């Protein structure tokens, strides 16, 4: 059953359209990814979901509530961690949790939550003295202190080193295992591929695709990429094989793409002509490739 339903969401900032026409549904218990480049409209979308912004058009249902009309009740059911969690420098970890718990009638036992997110040893540490990863753990704990059914996590691992990022991923999986539905905004494709059951790709304020990571990757033309070296021109024998979608030479190297049967077709065609592929390596398409195919852009400028 869908716990979140968004239909034709539209949001303007002055004359600028931030979210044009966004529709998707999130099933209970899912980790649902919202991915897109900077400025695609991800944060605006989740801010509308959490009642922090009023939409200009469309409808939103979160646990059956309208985020603007039923804001008070929504706050009890939805935990929100927004970009750039910032607290007063001197506020200690346990003080922050106790303070946030006081906002709710029936908060989660925050002492247990502290242990669960691995901040037990840091309970007396001031916010300013926490590392980036510890701050993110605290922001997750604060999003969960109201014992929500849905947690909205926005760019949770931006700025973390790979180790802290992996630890945060494990924490997110543990939160889902407690039955919390998670909406995860990210522009890290590896993160989305690893964590999410389904992903909405937002591009220029619209949903360009919604599917499982495997579904998005499977739709990429050329799921397998085989790279090798062979004498110049000899790769021509590959062009007639129907299983091979593309043959590209770049200097010494030839890259061949196609579906799951591309490797067999390639080795058969080469061996029939006694051509030995040197330094052969096979790579599977990733969510980065799928993102590029769907939007026409790499997910991040660095990618
Ligand atoms: N408060 C605001 N006032 C005016 N324009 C805004 C405001 N917030 C966002 N925008 C604009 O709306 C568009 C969508 O922004 P949004 O923050 O939703 O994108 P995003 O996908 O979350 O980007 P990022 O990954 O950089 O956080 C962008 O063009 C942005 O510049």
From TrEMBL:
Its main location: membrane. SUPFAM superfamilies: P-loop containing nucleoside triphosphate hydrolases. It is a peripheral membrane protein. It is found in: Cell membrane. Residues 4-229 form the ABC transporter domain. PANTHER family: ABC TRANSPORTER ATP-BINDING PROTEIN. One of its GO terms (cellular component) is plasma membrane. The keyword Cytoplasm does not apply. GO terms for biological process: response to antibiotic. Keywords: Antibiotic resistance, ATP-binding, Cell membrane, Membrane, Nucleotide-binding, Translocase, Transport. PROSITE patterns: ABC_TRANSPORTER_1, ABC_TRANSPORTER_2. This is ABC transporter ATP-binding protein. GO terms for molecular function: ATP binding; ATP hydrolysis activity. It holds the Pfam family ABC_tran. InterPro entries: AAA+_ATPase (IPR003593), ABC_transporter-like_ATP-bd (IPR003439), ABC_transporter-like_CS (IPR017871), ABC_transporter_ATP-binding (IPR050763), P-loop_NTPase (IPR027417).
């Amino acid at each position: 059953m869908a716990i979140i339903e968004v239909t034709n969401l539209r949001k303007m900032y002055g004359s600028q359209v931030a979210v044009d026409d966004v529709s998707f549904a999130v099933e209970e218990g899912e980790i649902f990814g919202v991915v897109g480049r900077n400025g695609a409209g991800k944060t605006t979308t989740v801010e509308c979901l959490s009642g922090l912004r009023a939409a200009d058009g469309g409808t939103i249902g979160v646990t059956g509530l309208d985020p603007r009309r039923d804001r008070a009740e929504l706050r009890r059911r939805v935990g929100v961690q927004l970009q750039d969690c910032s607290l007063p420098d001197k506020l200690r970890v346990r003080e922050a949790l106790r303070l946030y718990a006081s906002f709710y009638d029936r908060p989660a036992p925050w002492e247990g939550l502290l242990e669960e997110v691995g901040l037990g040893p840091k309970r007396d540490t001031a916010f300013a003295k926490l590392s980036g990863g510890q701050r993110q753990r605290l922001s997750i704990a604060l999003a969960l202190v109201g014992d929500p059914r849905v947690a909205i996590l926005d760019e949770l691992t931006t700025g973390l080193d790979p180790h802290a990022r992996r630890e945060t991923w494990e924490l997110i999986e543990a939160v889902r295992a407690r039955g919390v539905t998670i909406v995860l905004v990210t522009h890290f494709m590896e993160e989305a591929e690893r964590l999410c059951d389904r992903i909405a790709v937002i591009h220029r304020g619209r949903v360009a695709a919604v599917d499982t990571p495997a579904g998005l990757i499977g739709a990429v033309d050329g799921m397998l990429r085989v790279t090798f070296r062979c004498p110049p021109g000899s790769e021509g024998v590959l062009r007639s094989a129907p299983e091979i979608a593309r043959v590209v030479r770049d200097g010494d190297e030839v890259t061949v793409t196609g579906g799951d049967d591309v490797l067999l077709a390639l080795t058969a065609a080469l061996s029939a002509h006694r051509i030995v592929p040197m330094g052969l390596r096979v790579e599977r398409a990733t969510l980065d490739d799928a993102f590029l195919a769907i939007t026409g852009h790499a997910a991040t400028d660095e990618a």
